[in-house]
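Every protein is a chain of amino acids, and every chain bends into a shape of its own. The fold becomes a row of whole numbers, each drawn from a learned catalogue of backbone shapes. The protein below has been through that process, and both of its lines are reproduced in full.
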Amino acid sequence: MKSNGSWLSTLNPSCKLIVHLLVMFALMGIKDPVLTLVLWLLAVVTGVTLGGWTPSYLLRRLVPYLLFFMLVFWMLAAFGKGEQVLWQWAWFRVSEESLRNGLLIGLRMLGFVTYGLLFTSTTDLNRLMMSLVHQCRLSPKWAYGMLAGFRFIPLFQSELKQMKAAHRIRGYRQRNSGKAFMRYALPLFTQGVRKSERIAIAMEARGFTGTRERTYYVQPILAKRDYAYALILLTLIMVLIVAL
């Protein structure tokens, strides 16, 4: 995760994470497709105005999920149960109840993805871990362990590309997916173990013991803008729930 330099990126990551999780829990309890659609549009408007989203970025990120949600909507609408049948052909049976449930589930999943994207696209990974340590009282051992694990992901991706390129140069073609998986997984696993040992030795050599009584280069705090964002967003959602 990397910060995009928007106004939302200046907020405390823990506060932003808790607020977005509360919104997701609210989405889980809502059974009205119209209200779910309004809450999703609220996330989109927030991302465009405060999160630094552009229309091209929004389309590039959400179009793959839109196709999946349309498929989920069709499966729930065409094969669901209901008494008010709107359209029926062969084994497809679209009723008013199934159509409503399909819209609700599809929009709810889309809302989860959008609020999650609103958090990940405006949050720096280092500040998130430091915020979890200082605001959520997470153990530094867990925080730095997760931080190191996240750092391994791009390294594994680049090493996998290098191995595939080396195999193509040597003319290797493997059609069996199981054998191909083992051919790539074993070197990546051994390299991951070797790198994790190096990181552990380096952290111990620099005096890392996992205790809280230590100095920090970055110490996130809760500012007025964090409380303002949480209060405005949650209040607006409560007003929409009561009004709609």
Remarks:
- The longest strand covers residues 85-89.
- The first helix runs from residue 13 to 29.
- The radius of gyration is 23 Å.
- The helical segments are 13-29, 33-49, 55-79, 96-120, 125-134, 140-169, 177-205, 224-243.
